[in-house]
Amino acid sequence: MTVSRYLLALLWHWAPPVIIGFAIGSALATVQIIKVLESVDHQWLAAATQLVEQCTTQDQAGPADAEQVQGRAPGSSDHASPIRRTEARAERTLDPARTETASAREGGERFTPRAPEPSAARVG
Asked: What is the mean pLDDT of the chain?
């Protein structure tokens, strides 16, 4: 028997057990991976459920004796932000019934031009 025939016979006798062993090992590894993934999924679901329960069990209602928010006092627009003053100015400008009073407040009094009244000394 030559060396090449000996190695071929050896390969022939050992190949089936190696292939069968590889297949069985791969199947067992796949089963283990699936079990680990299921365990991780179960743990993640339990953690998420616990988180949701912790967030929902807190009393969401505020204290019963909470102070009501007060509105702004009349005339406090002087201390309003520039944006609010600009919005108020725009509303006054767009309201034709209030344009006379709005311009008087913003730029001082505006006098309407009139003809001078005749004085009593000149009439005569």
From this structure: 76
